[in-house]
Amino acid sequence: MAGLYFEDFSVGQRFEHLVRRTVTETDNLLFSALTMNPAAIHLDAEYSKGTPFGQRIVNSVFTLGLLVGLSVYDTTYGTTIGNLGWEEVRFPRPVLIGDTLRAATAVLSKRESQSRPDSGIVVFEHRAWNQRDEEVVSCRRTALMLKRPSA
């Protein structure tokens, strides 16, 4: 199913995303390696035993990407031109290997683009929780969205 066009969004609209995702050891290892992040807290199980978490934690940039990814099918699949920025990114709790994340999105604001008549700007608030209903990540994302094509 295609995403929504600029006109389809309304301020205050909320999406409870049905797709959930369990984070695996492979996700964390590959993402950390691909992004050149050698931090022991992500990769070294023995080192991580001595941290406040007692185990490896998932790379936070992966967590942010997964949060936004969980929202795509319901909101911006095929209708976003691009992300304009992320603000107020928060990680109130770490994501652990084996956690299953679910996400929700709210539309905070929208406005016409001043430079592109075929698009508008939508500000989303994304949040994700683990299987224990603990919030693990949130952000505001500004996206440039296509307007519905003229018939």
Topology overview:
Layout: E1 14-16, E2 21-22, H1 25-34, H2 40-43, H3 45-49, H4 60-75, E3 80-90, E4 100-112, E5 119-129, E6 135-146
Antiparallel strand pairs: 1-4, 2-4, 3-6, 4-5, 5-6
Q: Give the structural class.
A: alpha+beta
Q: How far apart lie the N and C ends?
A: 20 Å
Task: Quickly name the level 1 CATH class.
Answer: Alpha Beta
Taking Cα atoms only, what radius of gyration do you get, to the nearest Å?
A: 17 Å
CATH topology: Thiol Ester Dehydrase, Chain A
CATH superfamily: Hotdog Thioesterase
Separate helix tally = 4
Tertiary shape? elongated
Beta fraction of the residues?
Answer: 25-35%
| CATH architectural label | Roll
Q: Average pLDDT across residues? A: 96
Largest pleated sheet: 6 strands, antiparallel
Helix content: 10-25%
* Low-confidence runs of at least 5 consecutive residues: none
Strand elements, count? 6
Number of domains: 1
Helix/strand order, N-terminal first: EEHHHHEEEE
Explain how this protein is built:
This protein has 151 residues and is an alpha+beta fold. The chain has one domain (12-146): Thiol Ester Dehydrase, Chain A (Roll), CATH 3.10.129.10. It is 23% helix and 34% strand. The chain contains 4 helices and 6 strands, in the order ββααααββββ. The protein is elongated and about 60 Å long.
